[in-house]
Write a structure and sequence with these properties.
Structural class: alpha/beta
InterPro entries: FBD
Number of domains: 1
Distance between the termini: 26 Å
Shape: globular
Organism: Aquilegia coerulea (Rocky mountain columbine)
Strand order of the largest sheet: 1-2-3-4
Mean pLDDT: 79
Helix content: 40-55%
Protein name: FBD domain-containing protein
Length: 119
């Protein structure tokens, strides 16, 4: 959240998550999920210019990632596009990918132009 507040004129956000150590990955997401839950999410216009978000070959569908997508869709009022590129694990699991898409499509959007693409 700090980075988003630091760049109020940000128009494009690219998200890439990579880790070598699976345990570090789980621990990082555990810590981020706990942080996310404890924060008062006051946007104060920090997403007023954000138009495009891309998750680069890294979207795994963790609770944290889904919360981030939900937050962005629910607060970026000029959002035009979110491009979600699934991680290799999800890419080969059609059922999981389908479930993730179904979940994301139910998220509220404040921007009537917000489109979500998946690959």
């Amino acid at each position: 959240m700090f980075l988003l507040r630091s760049y109020p004129n940000l128009q494009t956000l690219t998200v890439f998550i990579q880790t070598q150590d699976e345990n570090a990955f789980v621990w990082t997401f555990f810590n981020m999920e706990e942080y996310w839950k404890t924060q008062e999410l006051n946007t104060d216009g920090m997403l007023k210019q954000l138009r495009r978000v891309e998750f680069i070959k890294s979207f795994g569908g963790s609770e944290f990632e889904l919360d981030l997508v939900r937050f962005l869709l629910g607060n970026a009022n000029v959002m035009e596009e979110i491009n979600i590129i699934f991680s290799e694990l999800n890419l080969y699991d059609a059922e999981k990918s389908s479930n993730l898409i179904e979940t994301i499509e139910m998220f509220a959007r404040v921007s009537p132009r917000a489109a979500i693409s998946y690959s």
